[in-house]
Hints:
The protein is an alpha/beta fold. The protein is built from 15 helices and 14 strands.
Amino acid sequence: MPVEGKTRFHDLDLPDEIMHAVDDLGFQFCTPVQAMAIPPSLAGRDVTGKAQTGTGKTAAFLVAIFTHFLRTPRKRPTKRGAPRALILAPTRELVIQIEKDARDLGKYCGFNILGIYGGMDYDKQQRQLMDISPDIMVATPGRLLDFRRGGLLDLRNVEVLVIDEADRMLDMGFIPDVRTIVYSTPRKEERQTLLFSATLTEDILRLASRWTNEPVTVEIEPEKVTVDNIRQVVFTVPSDKKFVLFYNLLQRDNPDRVLMFCNRRDETERVMGYMARCGINAEMLSGAVPQKKRVKVLEDFREGKIRVLVATDVAGRGLHVDDITHVINYDIPFDAEDYVHRIGRTGRAGKAGVAYTFACENEAFSMPEIEKYIGKALDYENPEPALLILPAGVGGAHSSQSYARPAPRPQGRPQGRYGRRPPPRR
Length: 426
């Protein structure tokens, strides 16, 4: 049934193979970025898109790629190591997620799809590359260049190039590698380029002007990602009571699937120690975890075998798991944009979600910037005293009223509601 103001996939004149998969996935209406990006992509136009993770942009560019392939069969015989479409992403987790989405959307199309990323066995990926001869390659820049330097990849026949999360590529220092890859593909007038970024800064627009040909610009504002069905609460809590508060909230709310974010990998390791002592079913996702285990942890989390996943921002980037009921900002993110990304892991597909942020004396000064970025004031709560006391017997021989290591005493007097940032050491 048509709905005013919404675009149906049925209205886009997509091939039957894609519509069959769309129906299997339960998709009916396009998200805003899909409604804006898919039509010009289907017409062969380049697209520069401003959209956060979780807005549906992955499906937008995959639909365009599959439709192009189905309507324009390969002109030359299949050549090993010569993909027709190349999708670049900044992290292994995002590559894995895009590859999974591509298999779901392309299940009736018959195209070969391969993910290439670091942290996995090089020889195994090399064998896959030679055996599969992929039509679509999803890759992180570093591992892709490793194979290209080894003479195993030929990018001269790339028809569609996708650069996903360009701002994150820039932040992580990947742009020189991406530039090398882009100039290994056909000229921008001879390929279709789709570039997506959470922000369209001057640096990103400069890159887009070099790599795209008269693109259509699509912008989805970030505040639309902070949806109303996510209950956002900030708990003001001493740094040495964070874990005790988390433990008691876990018992009170009894959520099925929880994603916790820490800012540093050493903090994830410390929190995992607390989890083990308290008998909480949890796993960790950070750069310190071997890639094979990371893949297994993600699959177990998706299947509900793991209740709490503790992750850093880099490891959690591109993490799409249905039915995450709670997101915990154990540490307040350094960037306001990361706050939006983090809480967007819950409240997906119109479901209700909860996002708790722990604001301690050393981090609370970041909250005004986050509130300004999302355009709304957040609810603040002082935890009830009972939430800051670990129940007797919990944690065995390690039980105490607080697990977290006390933070250094901040210099200067706190001022106002949030306190102030300690002055720099000279």
